[in-house]
Write a structure and sequence with these properties.
Elements: H1 2-7, H2 11-14, H3 32-38, E1 42-48, E2 63-66, H4 73-87, E3 92-96, H5 113-118, H6 121-124, H7 141-168, E4 175-179, H8 200-203, E5 207-211
Parallel strand pairs: 1-2, 1-3
Antiparallel strand pairs: 4-5
Helix pairs in contact: 4-7
């Protein structure tokens, strides 16, 4: 998904199907950051995963601060505000990668304390498949509660960042885009015991935009592409 979003090209064009692909993005394929840099923006990713660094998907960023596995919105929002404070005199293009609501296999996940303390024991103990991927996680109450708790955390932390932007910029001076790379299987009902990875919840992905030229309060349910 990241190569598609950053280049506007589908995987059969970039030939990048995995974060650990054996080759680099072709130099003639420009990334979004490279395009923005050509337009004179100071480009930065105050917090992002290293997935797109080695294959060239994150080309064009003047500043990259990467972390593996943990990309919490609390730290990300603070880093973004500090970035704006430090380089606000320039025209800024910034990318912030958050993982709070990403569904994780319980094998490597520490559940939110409120989830562990409020769910009955019968819903906190379950048979675990160590090798199941995030897009095939089962419909369990503990995964759902983890998602809602994490979403509230993101909402709370991003509110601080968005408020800061509104207080320091006129609406015609900024554009904020919030998007996700895939849906969440934990709200889907299995078909014959098998998770349907093309079910509505599994494929539905968020895309919200606010700022210059964007009408407020519009909700569109049309099928779109990350490319």
């Amino acid at each position: 998904a990241l190569p598609a979003i950053e280049t506007g090209r589908s995987a059969h064009h970039t030939q990048l199907f995995d974060a650990e692909a054996s080759h680099e993005l072709a130099p003639e394929i420009l990334t979004l950051a490279e395009c923005m840099k050509d337009l004179g923006y100071y480009t930065a990713a105050p917090m992002t995963s290293p997935d797109g660094v080695y294959n060239g998907v994150m080309r064009g960023y003047d500043r990259l601060i990467t972390a593996t596995w943990q990309l919490p919105s609390l730290i990300g929002a603070d880093r973004m505000i500090r970035h704006i404070e430090a380089f606000g005199e320039a025209d800024l293009f910034a990318f912030l990668h958050l993982s709070d609501v990403h569904p994780w296999n319980a094998k490597g996940l520490k559940f939110h304390p409120a989830v562990e303390s409020h769910l009955p024991l019968s819903e906190r103990l379950f048979e675990l498949d160590e090798h199941i991927t995030s897009v095939r996680l089962p419909r369990l109450k503990i995964y759902q509660e983890q998602f809602w708790r994490s979403l509230r955390r993101v909402d709370r932390n991003l509110a601080q960042l968005l408020t800061y932007i509104e207080e320091h910029y006129a609406e015609e001076e900024y554009l904020v885009s919030i998007y996700s790379d895939h849906g969440n299987s934990i709200f889907s009902t299995p078909v014959n015991g098998v998770m349907d990875v093309i079910a509505e919840n599994s494929t539905r992905a968020l895309w919200m935009m606010r700022g210059a030229g964007v009408p407020e309060g519009r909700i569109v349910n049309e099928l779109t592409s990350s490319a």
